[in-house]
Amino acid sequence: MITVTAATGHLGRHVIEHLLDRGVPATEIVAAVRNPEKAADLAARGIQVREADYTRPETLGPALAGTDKLLLISSSEVGQRVAQHRNVIDAAVAAGVGLIAYTSILQAETSDAPLVPEHKATEELIRASGLPFVFLRNGWYIENYTENLAPALAQGAFAGSAGDGKISAATRSDFAAAAAAVLTGDGHAGKAYELGGEAFTMSELAAEVAAQTGKPIGYQDLPAEQYTQILIGAGLPEVFAQVLAGSDVAITRGELFTTSTDLTDLIGRPTTPLADAVALGLKTS
Among 37, 47, 53, 215, which residue's beta carbon has the most beta carbons within 10 A? Predict the structure, then answer.
């Protein structure tokens, strides 16, 4: 039995599709979700849907019952992740889970990026649990940029504080394919995979969008404080704006760049090209 937490999220749904593509019977997949009603379409395909709320430990034991391999997709609630993840890890230990795979972040052991501490702390909790584990240290999602192209198209520029730093981003589907490979394969226990796609800079992203739209799109590099204020002015909460700007600064230090081939090795193919990701983003923007 393979259990995927946060299964109705963007990444979780991709993981389930890749598991099915790899021949895992729907009846051997558990979609562990906060709101089972949102997983009605998965249930209709024969997938087991179980309630699993990271903040309600009483839901986690029943959700993980009978689980051989667990994919713990990290919480999206920055600042609360460690406590929430601890609840899942404790439940996994109690349930006798055979392997826990965790979606961490690139260079979790050494990076100073704002999102790293909670991921690093979660990795430490998993190591201390005694469970066999795999760390899937995902780089940036390309969709962080391509799913919200409208502002750049309207203003004629991307704004940020990433300088000319390289970003080893990949699509959610690529990262999900790696997770599915680990969950259906052998020999992964104890490994930490540094996962990233073909790197690009923000200027190169802007150039690709310009080429596909025929519009003059550039990249405006700003001091982190100024970029933070722009994000707040656009309606983002101050804490999240600071995280985004701080992540851009981390990009200038090379902390979201990797030369590792772990992602292509796991999925057995090249990652999705930037041009393809941009084309899809333009269709849906």
Answer: 47
